[in-house]
UniProtKB/TrEMBL annotation:
Subcellular location: Golgi apparatus membrane
Claim: RNA-binding is one of the keywords in the record: no
Gene Ontology cellular component list: Golgi membrane
Record field: transmembrane: 12-34
GO molecular function, one term: UDP-xylosyltransferase activity
Stretches assigned to the Nucleotide-diphospho-sugar transferase domain: 99-315
Annotated organism of origin: Arabis nemorensis
Membrane-protein topology: Single-pass type II membrane protein
E.C. no: 2.4.2.-
UniProt protein name: Glycosyltransferase
Any one of the GO BP annotations: rhamnogalacturonan II biosynthetic process
Family: Belongs to the glycosyltransferase 77 family.
Length: 334
């Protein structure tokens, strides 16, 4: 009789346990799904191997910017797989200035997308079409132009989303924090690519064109605020790239300069100080100037030279190739 009394209780307990188990599994499934989302919290030690490839393929620029932006600001670079060591070198210098968390890498191929997100989840996004990951896109090549010509579209989209945007090429090294130099509330900040030495108190207006009607503003270091002026400049840059009737020789910079000159009366422009943001043609090729202005340099651009090995060697010769001895300072590690 006692056994009959206990049987219903045992059956009820078993059913309750099964119900609780099913509820627990359902809750666990929800958390696993959230944990796979690029917008979920990512520790830097995570690996994307636990995330399906389709998650990163579907990761949008809007999602990526929301994840990476800090104080409504995102630092953007565009990288193809052969240049990952330069990305790492640049990231070390950015990390030393405590700004690495707001970096967003626009991957130009899927190999870069998976490699960066595998070591640093959420900080890389790919906007199709993807390039061939095995080809070095050297300056002047068709592949180089294919992704640099997309740059203003990416920047415009980020501005439309409401973010301040700093764009850098990854053949740069930060020696100081550049943000204190972004004085005022101008629409667009940029650097001069000329090697002519300017006075320390030079004008911050757009330089006058030369006798051929040309200015030489660098399109490799730009800061934009999400204003109508900055958006207008990006739209004009896109238009100039589309409408160009001359061979740009794989370089989007002439179109950027045309856009600057044609919108100067509508956009609040600010030329950054040469001593802080020198072109590579001045910093690397005028040793006396570099020595006289030592301690005032903020971002060094390794331009005025073509080729991966040449750029690497030049950085190495002056102690700015950091990845060999300081790789662990980068979010990507070795």
């Amino acid at each position: 009789m006692a056994q009959l009394d206990h049987h219903p209780i045992s059956l009820l307990s078993r059913n309750s346990l099964i119900f609780l188990l099913l509820v627990s599994l359902a809750i666990l499934g929800v958390f696993l799904h959230w944990g796979r989302s690029p917008l979920f919290w990512f520790p830097n030690t995570s690996s994307s191997s636990s995330f399906p490839v389709s998650d990163w393929r579907d990761y949008s620029l809007a999602q990526a910017a929301k994840f990476a932006a800090k104080n409504e600001t995102v630092i953007v670079c565009a990288v193809s797989y052969p240049y990952l060591p330069f990305l790492n070198n640049w990231l070390i210098s950015v990390s030393r200035q405590k700004h690495q968390d707001k970096v967003l890498v626009i991957a130009e191929d899927y190999a870069t997308l998976y490699k960066v997100n595998g070591k640093w989840p959420g900080h890389a996004v790919l906007i199709p079409p993807a390039l061939d990951s095995q080809t070095e896109q050297y300056f002047g090549s068709k592949g180089f132009f294919n992704f640099t010509s997309r740059r203003p579209r990416h920047l415009l989209q980020l501005l439309e989303l409401g973010y301040n945007v700093m764009y850098n090429d990854v053949d740069m090294v930060w020696l100081q924090d550049p943000f204190p130099y972004l004085e005022g509330s101008h629409d667009t900040y940029f650097t001069d690519d000329r090697t002519t030495i300017k006075p320390l108190n030079h004008s911050h207006d757009l330089p006058l064109p030369d006798r051929n009607g040309v200015t030489y503003i660098c399109s490799c270091m730009i800061f934009l605020r999400p204003t109508n002026g900055a958006k207008l400049l990006m739209k004009k840059w896109i238009q100039e790239l589309q409408d160009s009737s001359i061979d740009l020789e794989g370089n989007d910079q002439p179109a950027f300069n045309w856009a600057l000159n044609k919108t100067a009366h509508k956009v609040d422009l600010y030329l950054l100080p040469q001593v802080a943001f020198p072109t590579g043609g001045l910093y690397f090729k005028n040793e006396s100037w570099a020595n006289e202005t030592k301690g005032k340099h903020v971002i060094i651009h390794n331009n005025y030279i073509i080729g991966y090995d040449n750029k690497k060697r030049r950085f190495h010769d002056i102690g700015l190739w950091l990845v060999d001895d300081h790789a662990l300072e980068s979010p990507l590690g070795k």
